[in-house]
Structure formats: C-alpha cells, structure tokens
Design brief:
Length: 427
C-alpha cells in the first residue's frame, strides 16, 4: 500500500468511545492516510462491505446483532480477499487465537495499544492478505497445471510434487517425497551427462534439455526438463524447481522405435539389449563412485514341462505372471529385465551390502515359488537365483553377468528353488 493513497478502513464497532479513539489514532500524522468508515452493527457493516472499495475491516466481535466467532465467520464470507482484524474488549487469548485460526489476519485488544500499534496491525494485515492471495494463486497453478512439477531441497531431496507429475510418472506422492530425485533416473545417461548438468546448474542456476526418465511401471519415456535454482536473500541455494514437459506425443515415433528396440514384447520389461546398457552404465557408476552394485540371474525351474503340457500360449501367460511377481517382489530402485526364454535378471542399484542383495533374492525365490494358475490348474514352479556384486564378483559387466549365471547354475545343482552367491573374482 503506497503512502500517497488513502487506506479505506471499515470499522464495525458499536461503542462510540472506542470507535472515536481509533479514528483519532489513525488520524495522527504518519506516512499513511486512513479513511475510516464506522458502522455500529453487523448488518450495516456487511452492506458497506458489499459496496466495495474497502481495504481492511476492523471488527468488534461483540455487536448488538451478532456475537463471538459467528460474527467473524459472516464478515469473512462477505469480505472475500479483504483482510479482517479483530477487535476484542476482552483480554481473552483463547478467543483471539481462535479468531486468527478461523481467518482473521490479526487481533487487537481495545484500549491496549496506541496509534502506532493499530496502524501497524492494519498495514501488516493488508500485506499478509496480499501475500496469502499470491500463495493461493501459486498453489492453484502448481496443483492444476498440466505440466509436471517437482520441488527439491538443496541436496536434491524431493519435498513436493504436483498432481500432473504423479499422472505422468505413475508414482504416488509417498513414493517420491522424501527421496532423492534419482528415483526417476532411467540410467540411460552416462555419468558425464549428469555431471555436465550439475556443473551448468551450479554456474548459471538453471538447466534445460531432453532427458530419458523412468515411470513407476519401469517404462522409459522422453521429457523436456527445466531445472531452476531457488535462491534466498543472501544468494544461498534453498532448493530447485523442476518442470517436466512430457515429449511422449511429440516423439511418439521415436519412442515406438526405442520401445521396440529395448522392451521385451511379451512382458513389457527391458529386453537383453536395454539390460546390457543398464548393466554397463551401472557397473561404471559403481566403480567410479565406490558403490556396490548387485545382479540377480533368475531361471525358472520346471518351465519346459509347462510348455510341453499346456502349450506355448499358456507358457507365455506364466512368463507374464513371472514379470508381474518380480516387479512386486523387488524394490522400486531395482531394474527387472527379461533376457529371453525363462531367464530374467534384476539389477540392484541401491545395495549397502551383500545382505541387501540376499534379502531381495530371498523375496524373489518366495514370490516365484508360489503355485501358478495354468488353464484353471495350480501348477508348482520355482526359481534358481544367482547373486553377484561389483566389485566382489566381477570388475566389468561381462564378468558380473557370467558370475551371476554360474551362481544360478550352482543353485540348480544344489536342488533348485534357492539362491546362491557367486564365487569371489579370481577364485
């Protein structure tokens, strides 16, 4: 509110002495001009408020035609975006706090403040209401825009996502908030890509470009990403706002080609070609950043008998069910792929030790050990799982895959329906 424009104050107060004192306080020489309109009843105050042109309402909660918080409720309904400051003749903290909780911008105890207190309360109420309106508008844009938005703190931890983000990615809010933004990473970009992105973001405060992201169901899609740093008054980075523009429709032909080249047509999982890229980039990243990477090699026990007895279509149904069970059994950060036939792999990118890999392997054995319904008949199957990790069981993608494969065969020889760790590299 500028000092050269009179601030229109509607004072709804039935006590002539109190209203006169407030008028005198607001008429004192300051940098602001106040034009006060006094109304002694709620009904008269509402009529004046409905005529418009009011910047702030000073409201007595005890009026001849209304009492207490009900008075505030009625005025707030009429006031819309006009801020309301409550006047109380009682030093009742509980009542005034409830008034603020119910929508008043501030409260004043009559007779306990000079002109400066009243003027400051009015000005602060107007600014708070303006700021609140801006926040509500920003919140509406955030929630109703068709563009996905994600907010992270300075460390890349997700603090908020909007509904459009959830629609595009398939994640729920609880699966994303509180985790790092890497949950969306498709692993199709090599480490240098992310390093260049971070370097440019640190230098300029923004980054924009096309990326491949991963939806919750494991599918990969192209997005146009814009990341903006949010700075505090001193220039400190408070966090980042990321805007996602889904390129699915613009790049449908390109995505179809990628899908055909990288996705198993039967199960929808990444195929051998895509798995090879994921494994190679995962091993490279694990070695570079001294992290642990795990690999499960899975082969079904008894699947050939299902094909021979029930036919290939029934066998395909079983493989699709295997894919579904695997996705449910592993963690959100794990990548499930089908290499072909009844061979599957799980890439474990977030393991802290061998016990983490063992835990996932145990869940896989349990999930695939439950009977399958084949043409209305319960058919028992099981899985043999080999476990290998970088760098314990191999120093490159080929060694790791071979070690996991050999461990899987060891599990079969040991009686099937179990998991086995690979031998340490060099033994």
């Amino acid at each position: 509110m500028t000092a050269d424009k009179a601030i229109a104050v509607l004072l709804i107060e039935d006590n002539l002495g109190d209203s006169r004192l407030i008028e005198i306080h607001l008429a004192e020489q300051t940098g602001y001009l106040f034009r006060v309109t006094v109304r002694p009843t709620l009904d008269e105050g509402l009529r004046t408020l409905g005529e418009g042109g009011i910047d702030v309402v000073l409201l007595d909660l005890s009026l001849p035609d209304s009492q207490g918080l009900e008075t505030l409720r009625v005025v707030l309904e009429q006031a819309g975006e006009t801020p309301v400051v409550v006047l109380s003749g009682l030093d009742d903290v509980a009542l005034t706090v409830r008034a603020v909780q119910n929508g008043a911008q501030d409260y004043l105890v009559k007779g306990r403040g000079d002109g400066e207190v009243i003027r400051r309360a009015i000005l602060h109420a107007i600014e708070r209401q303006r700021f609140r309106s801006q926040l509500l508008m920003a919140e509406a844009v955030f929630n109703h825009t068709g563009t996905g938005m994600m907010v992270t703190d300075a460390n890349g931890m997700v603090t908020r996502v909007n509904p459009a983000f959830l629609d595009v990615t398939g994640f729920t809010e609880s699966e994303v908030v509180g985790r790092t933004a890497w949950v969306l990473s498709s692993d199709l970009h090599d480490p240098s890509f992310h390093q260049d992105m971070r370097r440019h973001l640190d230098q300029t405060g923004t980054w924009e470009g096309e990326v491949w992201s991963r939806r919750r169901d494991g599918s990969i899609h192209p997005e146009w990403l814009r990341v903006n740093a949010v700075q505090g008054p001193t220039g400190t980075i408070l966090g980042y706002v990321t805007i996602f523009s889904d390129l699915t429709f613009r790049a449908r032909a390109e995505e179809d080609l990628v899908r055909q080249a990288t996705t198993d047509a039967l199960t929808g999982l990444p195929n051998r070609a895509l798995f090879g890229r994921l494994l190679a980039s995962g091993v490279q990243r694990a070695l570079r950043y001294d992290r642990l990477l795990g690999l499960l090699f899975i082969d079904l026990d008894g699947f050939k008998a299902v094909n021979d007895r029930f036919g290939h279509e029934a066998g395909d149904d079983v493989l699709r069910e295997v894919a579904r069970r695997l996705r449910r059994a592993v963690r959100l950060s794990d990548e499930v792929a089908r290499l072909g036939g009844d061979e599957f792999t799980v890439l474990l990118s977030e393991v802290r030790g061998l016990e983490d890999a063992e835990m996932v392997a145990a869940k896989v054995v349990q999930a695939l050990g439950a009977p399958f319904m084949v043409l209305g008949e319960r058919v028992p199957l099981s899985a043999s799982v080999g476990i290998a990790t970088v760098p314990t069981h191999g120093a490159d993608a080929e060694q790791l895959l071979r070690a996991a494969d050999e461990a899987m065969y060891a599990a079969k020889k040991a009686g099937k329906n179990r998991y086995t760790f690979a031998r340490r590299a060099g033994l």
